[in-house]
Amino acid sequence: MLQLYRNGENGEIIRGKGLSAFIHNGDYYAETIGVFEDGMIDCWELVNFEEFKTKVAEGWVVTEVPQGARISCHHLYYGNSTLEFYVEIDDFVKEVEDTINRLQGKQTVAETCIQAFGRFLTLPTKENKSSLQEAYNAIPKHLRIYVLGDMDCKDSAIRMCIEDTEVSQKILESFKRHYEWILERLN
Question: Are residues 116 and 81 in the same domain?
Answer without folding.
Answer: no
